[in-house]
Amino acid sequence: YTLDVMAEAVTEVLRELNIPKAILIGHSSGARVCARVLENRPELVYKFVIVDGNLRLPYIDPIARREDFLKIVKQMKERDYLTLVKSMMTKMTFSCLQGDKEDIERIAISIPQHILASTFESIGEEVFRKKSKITIPTLTLISNPALFGADYYQYLFGIFSEIDFGNWPRTGHFLMMERWERFNRLLIDFADEKYSAYWRFDF
After folding, report:
1. Which of 5, 26, 68, 188 could serve as 64's disulfide partner, Cβ 3.0–4.6 Å?
2. What is the pTM of this model?
């Protein structure tokens, strides 16, 4: 389950549904998959929304070493991997409603181990292999900018020529579930090219 394999799966869905051009919305590591679709098949993407997804390395923490990431990958492949998965879900869903927390954990632990481990390992891949600027309208929503590094916005400016940012510090990683009305309104307005700064920030 490399980025290219998962990106091709997205491309096939668009083909099957006869969608010539789409607005891709990627949450968490899904943002990396959508970014790879954008790089491989730019003609298929109309706009791009990054929802609390880090597009650069290292993924886990801006100051983490690659060895730390590889250690987690190794844990994902061990027999007691579910302990790690549950711990990660607890940290990611701390601000979610209890019912949502339970649903997220139930789905996470139901994923076969080989898929979880392989998908997590793909996080270590470099997303952008080409150096050309991406020119489509892009929006990124972040719950905790500190986790992405002080220079993360500058990093994105170096890749996207038309990018806007939204900070939702009162939310957790699953911000689209915690503030679903605001989130949906923002997406509709972004698609219609009439969104305002108000929707980009969670007060």
Report:
1. 68
2. 0.87
